[in-house]
Design goal:
mainly alpha; single chain; 4 helices
C-alpha cells in the first residue's frame, strides 16, 4: 500500500510542479488585473485586459505539458487531468479578481 502511494506521489510530482508554478503566476496576474479594474481609468483597464489575456494564453499553452505530466497511462484520463488543471487555474484567476473587487468595494463604502 505504501509503495503504491509513493509511486502515485512520484508520478504526480511533475504535474504539481507545473500547476503550482502557474498558480502563483495566475495569482499575481489576477491581483494586478483586479487592482487595475478597481480604478475606472481606461489605460489601467486596458493594461489589466492585456495582462489577463497574456496569462490566459500562456496557461492554455501548458495543456500539453500538463497532459504529459499526468500520472495516468490512459490518454483520456491525461486529457481530463490537463483540462481539470486548466479549469482550476481559471477559477483561481476569477476568484482572486472577485476577491480584490469585493475588498475594494467594502473599503470604499
Amino acid at each position: 500500500m505504501q509503495e503504491a502511494l509513493r509511486s502515485l506521489q512520484d508520478r504526480l510530482a511533475p504535474a504539481e510542479e507545473i500547476f503550482f508554478t502557474w498558480l502563483m503566476r495566475v495569482f499575481a496576474a489576477a491581483t494586478l488585473a483586479g487592482s487595475a479594474w478597481i480604478d475606472d481609468a481606461p489605460p489601467l483597464g486596458l493594461g489589466a485586459l492585456i495582462i489577463a489575456i497574456y496569462v490566459a494564453v500562456r496557461v492554455a499553452t501548458q495543456f500539453g505539458n500538463l497532459a504529459a505530466a499526468a500520472p495516468f497511462e490512459n490518454r483520456a484520463l491525461k486529457t481530463v487531468f490537463a483540462v481539470g488543471a486548466l479549469v482550476l487555474l481559471g477559477f483561481s484567476f476569477v476568484s482572486v479578481v472577485i476577491f480584490i473587487d469585493r475588498l475594494a468595494l467594502s473599503v470604499a463604502s
